[in-house]
């Protein structure tokens, strides 16, 4: 394996109605999702989410939490009747807790994951704008960040399909030091220290101060560095889905690309048992915070074997192994994207070691810090000044004209990996090379006949058939354009499709 | 795939003595670079001033979220 692997990003957006701090976030989140549904699929019937295969309480370590023992926020499989739309690009747009969430379609590589993640921003921006135009609707603003700086945090989760046979203990052992240190590459930057943000200063990561344990099932409390949720949304005998909750929501394309690409490489090395030397960190939770609180990247992390190194050096240890691994597996024949991820990763780490400010056109946390330092110098203000907190917040405002990251893009100030045309297309079109293609095309072509869908099924309600017809999609790499493209082109209605798939008339 | 290279993209400076040397002679360089960056950033701040929400204190205070995952 290389950087190529089935992967996807799910993001909970911050939501606010300026001037109405008391607005109910569940209601406003529903308005956002419903407004998008009304605008894009007015004529289609409303496909439900199919919860049959969902097991949010299944633990990768091999036991199930009883429902009685679970916190109510962990019960994500009960259909509360909250707004939910399955998009023609294969994504799910819905309300999770008190946030609108976009779960991107399954992709097979980090660049595609960036494109469909950015498409999610555009979907959300359009949804919020339409919700504000509804009769009686107030302007709703959405933020792609992870904290309100008052104690609340909400997530941007990555998902990676892995081989079931890989021992979970190996994942924990090799991934923990990597996750503790990768924030120097993919942190989003934050003004304020501590969960409630009252401490004065800037830190590298939005999420670091909200993590309390090393391994665990929770996602909403006692957040763990390694999350053990074992809900593969695929054949459970063959696969696990690694659910990563520690990442920041990124605006920068480079940050997201490296976050996914480097993690995919580390997972490949774990699966192939390529990692031997132990980089175990003595106190992962404390180091996670210490690294985040040191934006000069000089903090020395204590390893269990007594060595001390910076987070950048720890990342270089992983880079060095990844270079060897790719050379060992592919020689000079590695695919272009894998080579590109390795080269960019190396370049970023080298410059972080020399002077982090050199990354201000690539990495979120450095771009944000550069603006903040600019204001501090120009206006002579301290870290606790509200203007700096506003710059932090508004960096992640997803409106093209008001969001500060988007202003930097408009000035050509941030490096990009894709372009607006590809992103606009991905708002409506699914990736070609996963089952998201089948899901998305079915919703494009047979929306009236799709009763429900989920990651691993599409359920049809065919006129004249007594029962609903459930088409399982348990193999993430089937249902691709190559696999079903011509079949979908050929079948003019859902009845023909289901007949063709089941071999019945 | 679409990639746009940046200066230094293919640099392969290894940490080690070489990097430490860079650090020693680098302080002045870094300072100069930061000063150059500063001039550049001021133009951006002027533009951002136009779009920043009014009444920063009130705006930031009223941004209150429920916890999520």
Features:
heterodimer; A: 505 residues; alpha+beta; six-stranded antiparallel beta sheet; four-stranded mixed beta sheet; 38% helix; 15% strand; B: 69 residues; mainly alpha; 2 helices; disordered N terminus
Can you characterise this structure?
- The complex is a heterodimer of chains A (505) and B (69).
- Chain A is α+β, with helices and mostly antiparallel strands.
- In chain A, 38% of the residues lie in helices and 15% in strands.
- Chain A has helices at residues 25-40, 110-133, 168-181, 183-186, 253-271, 284-292, 311-330, 336-354, 364-379, 386-395, 404-410, 420-426, 436-445, 481-490, 494-502; strands spanning 7-12, 14-16, 48-49, 84-86, 92-96, 99-103, 141-143, 156-163, 190-193, 199-203, 211-216, 223-227, 239-244, 301-302, 308-309, 450-454, 457-460, 469-472.
- In chain A, the strands form six sheets. In chain A, strands 4-5-6-1-8-13 form a six-stranded antiparallel β-sheet. In chain A, strands 3-16-17-18 form a four-stranded mixed β-sheet, covered by helices on one side. A two-stranded antiparallel sheet of chain A has the order 2-7.
- In chain A, α2 (110-133) packs across α5, α2 packs across α12 and α7 (311-330) packs antiparallel against α8.
- The radius of gyration of chain A is 22 Å and the shape is globular.
- Chain A starts with 6 loop residues before the first strand and ends with a helix.
- The relative contact order of chain A is 0.15.
- The mean pLDDT of chain A is 93.
- With 69 residues, chain B is mainly α.
- Chain B is 59% helix and 0% strand.
- Chain B contains two helices and no strands.
- Chain B is elongated.
- The two termini of chain B are 33 Å apart.
- The chains are: A alpha+beta (505), B mainly alpha (69).
- At the A-B interface, β2, α8, α9, α10 and α11 of A face α1 and α2 of B.
Poorly predicted tracts of residues of chain B? 1-19
Biggest sheet strand line-up of chain A: 4-5-6-1-8-13
* Percentage of β-strand residues of chain B: under 5%
Mean pLDDT of chain B: 73
**Got a strand count of chain B?**
0
């Amino acid at each position: 394996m290389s950087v190529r692997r089935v992967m996807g990003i799910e993001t909970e957006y911050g939501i606010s109605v300026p001037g109405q701090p008391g607005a109910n976030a569940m209601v406003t989140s529903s308005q956002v999702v419903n407004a998008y549904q009304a605008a894009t699929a007015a004529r289609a019937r409303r496909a439900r989410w199919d919860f049959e295969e969902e097991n949010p309480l299944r633990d990768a370590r091999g036991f199930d939490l009883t429902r009685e023992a679970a916190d109510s926020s962990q019960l994500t499989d009960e259909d509360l009747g909250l707004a939910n739309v399955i998009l023609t690009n294969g994504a799910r747009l819905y309300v999770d807790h008190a946030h609108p969430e976009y779960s991107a379609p399954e992709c097979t590589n980090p660049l595609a994951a960036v494109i469909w993640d950015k498409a999610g921003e555009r979907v959300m921006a359009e949804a919020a704008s339409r919700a504000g135009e509804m009769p009686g609707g107030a302007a709703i603003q959405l933020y792609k960040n992870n904290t309100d700086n008052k104690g609340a945090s909400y997530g941007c989760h990555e998902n990676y399909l892995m081989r079931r046979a890989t021992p979970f203990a190996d994942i924990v052992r090799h991934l923990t030091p990597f996750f503790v240190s990768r924030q120097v590459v993919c942190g989003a930057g934050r003004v304020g220290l501590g969960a409630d943000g009252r401490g004065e200063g800037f830190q590298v990561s939005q999420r670091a101060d909200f993590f309390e344990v090393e391994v665990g099932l929770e996602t909403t409390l006692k957040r763990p560095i390694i999350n053990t949720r074992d809900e593969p949304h695929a054949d459970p005998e063959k696969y696990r889905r690694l659910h990563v909750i520690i990442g920041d929501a990124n605006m920068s394309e480079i940050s997201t690309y490296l976050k996914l690409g480097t993690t995919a490489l580390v997972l490949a090395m774990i699966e192939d048992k390529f990692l031997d030397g132990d980089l175990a960190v003595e106190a992962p939770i404390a180091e996670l915070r210490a690294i985040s609180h040191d934006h000069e990247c000089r903090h020395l992390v204590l390893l269990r074997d007594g060595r001390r190194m910076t987070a950048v050096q720890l990342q270089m240890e992983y880079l060095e192994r990844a270079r060897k691994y790719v050379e060992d597996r592919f020689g000079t024949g590695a695919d272009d994207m894998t080579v590109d991820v390795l080269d960019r990763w190396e370049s970023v780490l080298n410059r972080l070691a020399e002077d982090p400010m050199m990354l201000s056109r690539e990495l979120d946390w450095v771009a944000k810090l550069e603006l903040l330092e600019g204001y501090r110098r120009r206006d002579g203000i301290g870290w606790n000044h509200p203007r700096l907190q506003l710059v932090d917040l508004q960096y992640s405002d997803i409106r093209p004209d008001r969001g500060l990251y988007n202003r930097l893009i408009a000035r050509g100030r941030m490096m990009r990996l894709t372009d607006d045309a590809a992103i606009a297309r991905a708002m409506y079109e699914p990736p070609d090379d996963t089952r998201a293609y089948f899901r998305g095309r079915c919703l494009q072509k047979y929306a009236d006949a799709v009763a429900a869908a989920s990651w691993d099924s599409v359920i049809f309600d065919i006129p004249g058939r007594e029962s609903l017809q459930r088409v399982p999609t348990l193999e993430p790499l089937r249902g691709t354009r190559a696999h079903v493209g011509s079949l979908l082109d050929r079948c003019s209605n859902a009845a023909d499709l289901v007949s063709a798939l089941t071999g019945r008339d | 795939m679409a990639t746009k290279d940046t200066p230094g993209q293919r640099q392969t400076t290894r940490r080690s003595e070489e990097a430490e040397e860079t650090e020693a002679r680098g302080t002045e360089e870094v300072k100069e670079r930061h000063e150059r960056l500063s001039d550049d950033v001021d133009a951006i701040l002027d533009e951002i001033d136009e779009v920043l929400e009014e009444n920063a204190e009130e705006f930031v205070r009223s941004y209150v979220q429920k916890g999520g995952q």
